[in-house]
Amino acid sequence: MTDSRLQSLQQAVPGLRLKSDPADLEHYGRDWTRRWTPAPLAIALPASIEEVQAIVRWANQQQVALVPSGGRTGLSGGAVAANGELVISMERMNKVLAFNAVDRTLTVQPGIALEAVHNAASEHGLAYPVDFAARGSCSIGGNIATNAGGIRVIRYGNTREWIAGLKLVTGTGELLDLNRALIKNSSGYDLRHLVIASEGTLGIVVEATLRLTDPPSPSNVMLLALPSFEVLMQVFAAFRERLQLEAFEFFTDRALHHVLAHGAQKPFDDVHPYYVVTEFASGDEASEAAAMAAFETCMDNGWVSDGVISQSDAQAAQLWRLREGITESLAAYKPYKNDVSVRISAMPAFLAETQALLGQAYPHFEVVWFGHIGDGNLHINVLKPGDVDYPLFVQQCEHVTELLAQALQRCGGSISAEHGIGLVKKGYLGSTRSDAEIAVMRGIRQVLDPNGLMNPGKLFD
Fold first, then answer.
1. Half-sphere exposure of 29 toward its Cβ, with a 13 Å CA cutoff?
2. Which residues partner with 274 through β-bridges?
């Protein structure tokens, strides 16, 4: 706290809580990536919109870069502060501000955890349907910054579809009230959607109004064992044709191996190469019969080798753990991650090409696959062997990512489906966006953040 800039910050924002202990700098200076050494100037923990505005104005005067920080569960380096930036942690701004029963909206501060939003909506007999495994630690502000998707996109879409309005503090300290929860608003550009997925480069989200919906209908969960990779899309088509799918997730035998080693319960006696966990609306005899018809069709065609359907909420949770526990079970291996997406119609060809590419590129590395097949999103995790130097490991993986980006460009896909670009994928943005698109994005950023202080180095330089 002896840095003169921090002394001037405390004078500019009286009562602002600051942290500068080495342990805090390390904790708040990074996300779930571990490729950069955290080196922030300090951690600011504002408690109000006015404090956020004052911090941003101070940053412009002092020319100090800012890194917004939520739950720091990101996987792209979007919340890393490695170059003396001031981290603005939103963890104190974590409250529900308002509920509107007529509009069916919930207004919250950005630091609130996704799980807390679920609970708040449930108290009013409604649901906020965006969901994923990190629900207990990720924040709504971070979800908005990356347009987070998760396990129920096939039914409900990404975060973008559920944001009715936003308040944004821009890179100059101005407060913008975007869309104000209107359903219809044709009064020019919808700046709300520019902010969503901008990764904190256009400003800091300080308030969000979320759309709520009816709680999901009763559902059931089925785990399927598949004999090969090639039948995956046939199984998806068979179930989508007959059922109202809530989720359709696949993972490999290696993914299951690590989750079981992490304490999950083994679902089958035999080991199968691929698995699908699917959730679907049920609650009546017709839906149960449709589920069994889909399963029998897949069995008759040799697309499915075995299966189990949940008989209770507890068993459904056990089956979901096999999918949701993958990321945590792999964390100790410092995996190199790719999070890619293609159109569902392009998925079969892309799967075949990618599987061949990775098989050739990583013969000596363990590759763990899982993904949201129902929305065209694949997660590819390459595990670092214990005897390989980490920088060399990353270098080898980066070479293959270049080839993967080229394959995505050929089929019109994206190098980042839901994790964001951040630092990790910045070099591959051109495989997803044209030069003209990137130039427009740069121009928008220049308008809202003329001094380039908002999360610099993320998305593009």
1. 22
2. 226, 252
Would residue 233 count as lying in a domain?
A: yes
Q: Residue 348: what pLDDT?
A: 81
Residues 282 and 351 in one domain: no
CA angle 319, 349, 335 (to 5 degrees): 50
Average pLDDT over the chain, rounded to whole?
Answer: 94
Do the bridges between strand 163-170 and strand 203-211 make them parallel or antiparallel, or are there none, so unpaired?
antiparallel
**Rounded to two decimals, what is the model's pTM?**
0.91
Give the CATH number of the domain where residue 295 resides: 3.30.70.2190
pLDDT attached to residue 1: 64
Which range marks the domain in which residue 244 is found? 219-327
Answer yes or no: is 262 within a domain.
Answer: yes
Q: For residue 59, what are its two tokens?
A: 């940053």
- The reply to whether 378 falls in a domain is yes
DSSP line for 183-213: S---SS--HHHHHTTSTTSSEEEEEEEEE-B
Does residue 222 have a pLDDT over 90?
A: yes
Q: Is the pLDDT higher at 255 or at 353?
A: 255
Report d(CA 317, CA 300) in Å as an integer: 28
* Other CB atoms within 10 Å distance of the CB of residue 271: 10
301 with 390, same domain?
A: no
pLDDT value of position 151: 87
The answer for 139, left when phi > 0, alpha when psi is -120 to 50, beta otherwise, is beta
| Residues 239, 144 contacting (CB under 8 angstroms) | no
Look-up of token digits 């691929």: 274
Q: Transcribe 60-104 into DSSP letters.
A: HHHT--EEEESS---SSSTT---SSPEEEE-TT---EEEEETTTT
User: How confident is the model over 72-84, as a mean pLDDT?
Assistant: 94
